[in-house]
């Protein structure tokens, strides 16, 4: 469902903030020729190309690019929410796995590990690359601009000229990643919501021919057809950390080098290698030792506190990766 006027009003200051930060960069993928509108941030870049009439009639599909940084080659995962927030929107998760990039559509009703999306969204791959700093996937996403799960439904109407999207980025790889439908992930370390404003390059007459390049169904190692994704070895993946990534071709204004970090209200330190153990202060009344399978939100709710409280009790706490064995404070004296 589209946000109501009241909801938009409450989002306005924040959206305006986002508009100043996240500008649209037009990027042409050399190998496929696809022209994308992209929205880079420090951790990842997401982009879309739409059918030729998408700015006047709501599209049902798009061709997408998702490029995510990974400090260690072939690790981590990243995701997009087609409706902005994590909950009650179609989520797309992508991650490198044994030389391929696998994907999973997910659904969340709370800030907990999302379950598998049961709607008819379909992803087919055009190309993928994995290098020492990033992984990148170009794909076609059908039935991805409307979603429904149980009683809940929503959409991302392209005719409005912009979408409100969400992103998240994690450095810890999914567990059981060979099986996209039964994998589990720990909480991402960084996330945000951004306005994805379209410029005229987003809708293109060549869309149909671009979409027809999406012939690979990459299902992972758990059955189903396993067609390897054509790897665009020569194509250089847009690189979000250098933010140089999408080289603006016909690009409107902002130089991608000016791309800045996403919403400061949600973005956190990018460097997992510098992750420190939290340092519960002496005023801690109850501590908890992190065990395998824990994530910040779970620890917080299990102890009757909010995620923000958990973070404030534990300066320096890094939720991705959350260190097993670390001692965190869950109640203040
Ligand atoms: C163990 C799994 C996950 C947990 C525990 C989790 C938890 C959370 C929490 C607590 C927040 C709010 C953070 C804050 O405001 O500081 C959040 C935000 C977000 N999450 Fe997740 N998440 C998980 C998986 C995912 C996945 C798989 C996706 C998408 C593919 C996703 C997309 C988002 C987005 C877009 C936001 C920002 C928008 C919002 O706050 O609703 N999350 N998540």
TrEMBL record:
It comes from the Eukaryota. Residues 229-284 are annotated as: Disordered. InterPro entries: Cellobiose_DH-like_cyt, GMC_Oxidoreductase_CD, LysM, LysM_dom_sf. CDD domains: CDH_like_cytochrome, LysM. Keywords: Signal. Residues 1-20 form the signal peptide. This is LysM domain-containing protein. It comes from Lasiosphaeria miniovina. The lineage of its organism: Eukaryota, Fungi, Dikarya, Ascomycota, Pezizomycotina.
């Amino acid at each position: 469902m589209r946000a109501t006027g009241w909801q938009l009003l409450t989002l306005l200051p924040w959206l305006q903030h986002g508009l100043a930060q996240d500008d649209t960069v037009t990027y042409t993928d050399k190998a496929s020729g696809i022209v994308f509108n992209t929205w880079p941030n420090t951790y990842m870049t997401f982009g879309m190309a739409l059918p030729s009439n998408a700015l006047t009639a709501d599209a049902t599909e798009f061709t997408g690019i998702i490029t995510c940084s990974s400090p260690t080659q072939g690790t981590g995962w990243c995701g997009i929410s087609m409706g902005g927030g994590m909950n009650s929107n179609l989520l797309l998760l992508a991650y490198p796995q044994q030389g391929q990039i696998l994907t999973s559509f997910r659904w969340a009703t709370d800030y907990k590990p999302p379950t598998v999306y049961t709607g008819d969204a379909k992803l087919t791959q055009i190309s993928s690359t994995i290098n020492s700093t990033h992984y990148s996937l170009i794909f076609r996403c059908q039935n991805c601009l409307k979603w429904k799960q149980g009683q809940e439904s929503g959409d991302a109407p392209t005719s409005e000229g912009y979408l409100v999207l969400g992103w998240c980025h994690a450095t810890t790889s999914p567990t059981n990643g060979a099986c996209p439908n039964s994998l589990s992930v720990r909480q991402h370390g960084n996330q945000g919501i951004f306005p994805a404003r379209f410029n005229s390059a987003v809708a293109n007459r060549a869309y149909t021919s671009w979409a027809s390049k999406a012939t690979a169904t990459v299902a992972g190692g758990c059955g189903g057809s396993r067609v390897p994704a054509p790897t665009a070895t020569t194509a250089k993946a847009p690189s979000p950390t250098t933010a140089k990534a999408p080289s603006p071709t016909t690009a409107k204004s902002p130089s991608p080098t000016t791309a800045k970090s996403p919403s400061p209200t949600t973005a956190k330190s990018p460097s997992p290698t510098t992750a420190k153990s939290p340092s519960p202060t002496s005023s801690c009344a109850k501590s908890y030792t992190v065990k395998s399978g824990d994530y910040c939100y779970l620890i917080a709710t299990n102890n009757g506190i909010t995620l923000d409280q958990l973070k404030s009790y534990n300066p320096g706490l890094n939720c991705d990766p959350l260190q097993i064995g670390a001692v965190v404070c869950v109640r203040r004296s």
